[in-house]
Amino acid sequence: MALITDPDQLNQGTEVTYDTAALTMALSLAGNLSEDGVTGQCLYSFSKEEWLSDANLIKYTFPMLAITPEQFEFGSNGSKFSDWKPLDDATRKLIRTAGWREYDNTASNLREYVGVITLGAIDAASKTSGDRVKYAFANDNTTTDMTYAGPANEAVQIYGDAANGNFDKRSEVMTVYVREENKTYGSATTTSIGTTTLTYNVQRFPLSEGTDLKADVADTGIDADSNGTADVAPYDVMSITYIEHANQGDWADATAYAANDVVKGSDGRWYITAAGGTSAGDSTDLAGGSDTGISWVSFTGERQIGTDWYAFGVIIDGNNAAAEEIYEFVQWSLRQSGDIDAGTGTQVGLLAEDLMLFVGDTLRTLRQSDGDGVFIDNFNTNDTNRLEFQDDNYAGAARTFPFRSAGNITFNTNIVNDTDARYWMFFKDAGGNLIDTANAIIVQDDAGSDITGLVTGQASISFDFDFDGNVQGGRSSGSNAIVVIRVMGLNTTQYVEAEFTISRATGLNFPMTGVLERNYLNAA
After folding, report:
1. CA distance 26 to 6
2. Nearest 10 degrees: CA dihedral of 38, 42, 48, 53?
3. CATH architecture of 246-299
4. CA distance 445 to 472
5. Could you give the CA distance from residue 109 to residue 114 in angstroms, rounded to a whole number?
6. Residue 469 to residue 504: CA distance in whole angstroms
7. Nearest to 142 by CA among 295, 331, 337, 1
8. Average of pLDDT values for 289-309?
9. Any idea what DSSP says for residue 325?
10. pLDDT for res 407
11. Which residues touch 198 (CB under 8 Å, ≥6 apart)?
12. What does the pLDDT average to over 206-235?
């Protein structure tokens, strides 16, 4: 069945029942009425027709006032108040595309409901089977599922007097979202749709989901016993840590700072104060006491990207896993009902904001609404070039590491079989430091270690290179590097060298072929 919008589809005693003694109207899943419900406008229109034609009903005050086709008042007809109201919550949940207020005969406001409608695809086989939209209010520490599956069109109570819930959510930010296993996530807030105060009308939230091509591991592949704790490698050692702080930007003199404020010193590093106070002196050595008014220590949320330091409020430990695996762990964490914060604070997973998303094959972290940036520690170095970070001071340009070229040096059988075989990678010309001179320079990898070593029977040895940052010997960073690889063995390979180019790319392959050694002899 479908949502009823035509009052001709309603009948007294079947879909709708008016109790003139209790002054209630009830909706029943019978006749034409299914879980798809009936619009508030249709219920109002049907009630008008019934009051007009039913000699018994006209004896009683009309139960509803229509302010708009989507906003109503029960127990009010504009000039007179009564105790008419929906019978129960089951009835209320079947009233769709409507928000309303409920009065009593003293004109007291008993309840208010906002009609929540989501715009977008949410998978559901039926109203009772499928993915469910959730909602939460800013001051709550819990989430609530919508009654019915699929796209939401449902009333949510936002106010109740002392006898009807005793709460008031009208001034709180409401978040509506969908988070399902192996699906893309969606969320929207009253702020994002331009609503500052909730009232008894209809609010529409853009919200949709789809198949998540980057998260195809079942929950049991992360949490085998489904107890809310990741226990399957590599997810079992991953973590998310939230760091309480307020980023105040560059340190300033004679300024009042609060506890947990974070500032940037003149050395480019970030510092946090536990107690706050009024600054004095300068920021040349904040951890060393150059600010004589406040005690500062190094901020644990600072991370270096390239040559600069940035501040972050959320740190994800990736356990040296691939970007997709880190993403899967984070998405799983955001569907947990318990605390996901590995730090000293508490953050319920379901109430946490999205932390990252994939743009094609690039994994991008997301700055939080409170300004906190998000960083990934211990990611697989092969993914360096496809990670983007939004820090506390993110202003549209994501932070990325200098480009890391990567590849493999491959060896033929003669080299592999030579237990003494060693390899070296030299710059052909690094700022005038030439190969075949005393000033020849061995190329360093991204970590600053020389690219040289024993082959030790390996057919392939990987390397990486800081393409944008390496300036060895005065090399021009960001330009192709011409390198010479030399291999020397004893018993099975002769000396061999070859010239290659390290370009701004990954997947480079530098093959080394050693001629079989037939003349070396050391009989001792």
Report:
1. 18
2. -70
3. Ribbon (2.10)
4. 11
5. 15
6. 12
7. 337
8. 96
9. H
10. 94
11. 114, 158, 169, 170, 171, 172, 174, 190
12. 96
Three-class DSSP category at 414: helix
| Separation CA 485–CA 432 (nearest Å) | 18
pLDDT at 1: 76
CA 338, CA 335: separation in Å to the nearest integer? 9
Name which of 453, 452, 524, 517 is nearest 490 in CA terms: 517
Q: Which CATH architecture has domain 404-512?
A: Sandwich (2.60)
The 3-state DSSP class for residue 100 equals strand
Q: Is 524's pLDDT higher than 80?
A: no
Q: DSSP string spanning 59-81?
A: GS---EEEEETTEEEETB-SS-B
Region of residue 457 (left: phi > 0; alpha: psi -120 to 50; beta: else): left
Q: What is the CA radius of gyration of the chain?
A: 33
User: pLDDT at residue 397 above 90?
Assistant: no
Residue 353 is given by DSSP the state P
Query: Exposed, middle or buried, 21 (CB in 10 Å: 0-12/13-18/19+)?
Result: exposed
* Pairing of the two strands 302-305 and 308-311: antiparallel
Round the average pLDDT of the chain to a whole number and report it: 96
Structure tokens at 490: 């004893």
CA angle 357, 324, 404 (to 5 degrees): 90
Helix (H, G, I), strand (E, B) or coil at 342: coil
* Six token digits for residue 416: 């592999």
Q: What share of the chain in percent tops pLDDT 70?
A: 100
Q: How far apart are CA 290 and CA 281, in angstroms?
A: 6
Question: In the block, which residue shows the tokens 């002769």?
Answer: 494
The pTM score is 0.84
What are the structure tokens assigned to 5, written together? 């919008």
pLDDT of the residue at 382:
84
Token code pair at residue 19: 């109790």
DSSP assignment of 41-53 equals HHHHHHHHHHHHH
The dihedral region occupied by 59, where left means phi > 0, alpha psi between -120 and 50, and beta the remainder, is alpha
CB 292 within 8 A of CB 284: no
Each domain of the chain, given as residue ranges in start order, spans 7-107, 115-206, 219-242+311-388, 246-299, 404-512
Q: pLDDT of 42-97, one tens digit each?
A: 999 999 999 999 999 999 999 999 999 999 999 998 889 999 999 999 999 999 99
* Start-to-end Cα distance in the chain: 94
